[in-house]
């Protein structure tokens, strides 16, 4: 049996059922892993070791009685620090957020608990999820598990790094323009952004009307099982807003007969040659699996880039709204990059904002037409590799070229590791029409099986000696 912390959910649950493994043993192994590895990567901003061990003991007693409370009973899960977890503060990566502990779980977290999962820690984020790297004044910089000199991406970088390094098999994250898929791509794990609002957000609903909650995991099946729990889908043939028998039910049905569009580089997107080669080989795999793969320019996406400011206009305005009631003293505590976003948003007039919303509507309508011809669309997840820590280079400060448009259209999209560009992992993005989450996951699973196991980063991590992680 492989190292406990790298087991998938099916292996964990089988071990619990057969009494060859216990939830206490697993939680101890995960917490020990965090203690050993997190100082080098800074993926966690809060832990509840006592509460996690208590919950693991309860799960162990249920398994001993043969009465697990759900399909994830005893499975550790971390949660991005934009999402409320009872007993933890929700700091949003910000000195301006309240340090008080939450008394109520966000709906998705509550559903994970009902399925038996154990939330044991909060993962790092950029401040209020404002950018595609994970650094902020409150928690400092999070580092890539493959090369600690580099960023893992963001804003869900802590979640992606935690999963990649075996610091828990699952993490609940958010994605407003690529914040699940980009760190999944650069960290070598699976990251799924569901159809907009498929996973309930409750009082922390997407204030940007772009962001949605989703899973980060090491395998597509684990991501699907987590999505089952968060949407209320289950394995008895019923669901609450999920697919008829859960998103994990038909994962192995393959892609034979599907018509798949393949867009290697939308007009104006400079995809690095080594990334293009990796993703091109992944696209070829679908043809070998029985799908019809057709290279296409995807005109609606080209129109989106031609519009130029659709995503950035909305993003800036939303952040301007976020900070407009802050006291002047609090504004001085903000990440300067967030302040710049908010200031830019405050200068945008109503007509420009409405134009961006109209362009968003037009993009959604265009993609509905596109998906009348194709079942799925393949693209690279990101056009280049990760930047150094800390900070975000100027050329990456615009809307992420290959991911943000999916948020504009509300489409489900997944990043699956598809190889290495140099020494770093890169990702294939699989996109479907609104509501086709099960099909996107099924295609990702077919590719994953054909690809074989993807390696994990080694646990021998070194922090560059001249850079500190936290302020």
UniProtKB/TrEMBL annotation:
EC number: 6.3.5.-
Keyword Nucleotidyltransferase part of the UniProt annotation: no
PROSITE patterns on file: AMIDASES
Domain (Amidase) ranges: 26-441
Keyword Endoplasmic reticulum set for record: no
Record-linked SUPFAM superfamilies: Amidase signature (AS) enzymes
InterPro entries reported in the protein's UniProt record: Amidase, Amidase_CS, Amidase_dom, AS_sf
Class in the EC hierarchy, top level: ligase
Keyword tags: Ligase
Domain of life, per lineage: Bacteria
MF annotations from Gene Ontology: ligase activity
Similarity section: Belongs to the amidase family.
Protein name, entry field: Amidase
Organism the protein comes from: Paraburkholderia xenovorans (strain LB400)
